[in-house]
Amino acid sequence: MKELNLFPDKNFWDGKNVFISGHSGFKGGWLSLWLRELGANVTGYSLEPNTKPSFYNACDIGSVTNSIFGNILDYKKLESSINKFKPEIIIHMAAQALVLESYKNPLNTYETNIIGTLNILEIIRNKSYVKVFINVTSDKCYENIEKKYSYKESDRMGVHDPYSSSKGCSELVTSAYRLSFFNKKNNSSSCTSIASARSGNVVGGGDWSADRLIPDFFRAVSQNKDMHIRHPNATRPWQHVLEPIRGYLILAELMFKNEGYDEPWNFGPNNKDTSTVKNVLEELASQWNENVNISYSKDKSEQHEANLLNLDITKTTSMLNWHPLLSIKNTIALTCEWYRNFYSKKSEMQLYTLEQIKKYESLLK
Q1: Residue 265 phi, psi (nearest 5)
Q2: Which of 35, 126, 152, 272 is the Cys-Cys partner for 40 at CB 3.0 to 4.6 Å?
């Protein structure tokens, strides 16, 4: 019987070579810190941080990783970086990750999210040292029917905006390579397990991306400005950044040790924690406990954004033994605590972030 852990196994990760694409981003930074705390040797490949402030700089991610700054589209540099490090596990997170940006720069969005994925898959196609590859995509990859429905891993890809479309394409590319080149039935010499991970709207301390709800709120707070919301009734599967990251780590362990996990997986909150934008903001303002002027109005833009979105996590909870641990209220509490420490300069942020990881781990014990 396969052993299913509720949390990452330090004995497994200690000494493992892990390659993270996109480590300079918000989500990649949290993953890098947790992996280093578990004892892994982490090499990150990414563009330089593109926000000021940034999680990468605030938490000094460069001190816990071997950082390589490069474009995921630079095949030769990416190939050289992977060949030199010889990772056993690759977690691919490098992406153009913003819906509105994808309308402004669709070509860059498609190139980064599709060709970037293809580059890594092609590079590792005959690399026996790579045992696990996880492509982190998005909950927005599904064909959204705009109904109260939770999307399952078997549902169709296909969406409106360039960002979501590019993530659906990345999923299809991953599936094609898995079936064509990383399938023991077709390639008996293959020793790399390939999976994809689709997570919900991830929030937490240290995100300063443009056109995202939580960063927009804290930008308004830090600059003493009003905040305007375009889609107050849009529903999203909100979750703290540590929730899906724990899922990726558990999945990687199972893929490394066993066959049968090379599939797509959903990581999202419990249904009761799927909330509207307005409800999340009201909880955020309440816990922040400072006056922030928030105005709401229906967006008149012709650019489509999904209104209803939820994930079915039945397969993940039953087969991986992964379950969400944080309610939306606790998620927002952890997020507020992180930004409060950052803006008050009470704590060194790498140490404080590690304290939050330990606090989260304590929920598992």
Answers
A1: -140, 140
A2: 35
